[in-house]
Amino acid sequence: MALLPYFQEGVLEAGCDEAGRGCLAGPVYAAAVILPPDFYHPLLNDSKQLTESQRMVLREVVEKESLAWMVASVSAAEIDRINILKASFLAMHRALDGLPIRPESILVDGNRFYKYGTIPHLCVVKGDGKYASIAAASILAKTHRDEAMERLHLEYPAYQWQQNKGYPTESHRDAIRQHGISPWHRRTFQLLPAGEQLELF
């Protein structure tokens, strides 16, 4: 099914989505994208449904053809300080802050959002599979975050972040058991299953 180009015709809408909310390590990323109303690409879909190569092709298209886009992040330390839900919203607000064009409305993936100034917003559950601008934002957020985790992998190769991107895979947890945690791990998250002792390095 083709994605919807907009919620309200004639309104400058920014789609917002985040990436990395469920990770054990690294920042949470968010993107805000304003697409032309006639934008269409046959591959565009929720980033989780695409291959890595498809996401990179679409990222280039979105960054070139969108009216405006911005990616922003919130660090693991900030996540620990304010919690992951607030951090996800903060990352979206930072992305919206960076847009060179002020949107008239915001479409947000999910069921909750903190109001952004006076701009109205609409929360759309599974919106990255419904609206083109949210799908585009999901692609930018994920690809930019993946690249950030690949850079962090060079500092801390033991955790295999170039593969797991900070998500709670068994190999990631095995590395935490063996090496303890890095400065990029989210200390307020359950890094190991309940009952296991965590070494704080």
Please provide a written account of the structure.
The protein has 201 residues and is of the alpha/beta class. It is 37% helix and 15% strand. It has a single domain, classed as Nucleotidyltransferase, domain 5 (2-Layer Sandwich). Strands 3-2-1-4-5 form a five-stranded mixed β-sheet, with helices on both faces. The longest helix is centred in the last third of the chain and has 24 residues. The mean pLDDT is 95.
What portion of residues belong to β-strands? 5-15%
The structural domain count equals 1
- Tell me the CATH topology: Nucleotidyltransferase, domain 5
Second CATH tier, the architecture: 2-Layer Sandwich
Number of continuous helical runs: 6
**Biggest sheet character:** 5 strands, mixed
Tell me the name of the CATH homologous superfamily. Ribonuclease H-like superfamily/Ribonuclease H
The termini sit apart by 49 Å
**CATH class value:** Alpha Beta
* H and E string: EEHEHHEEHHH
Q: What is the residue-averaged pLDDT?
A: 95
| Strand segment tally | 5
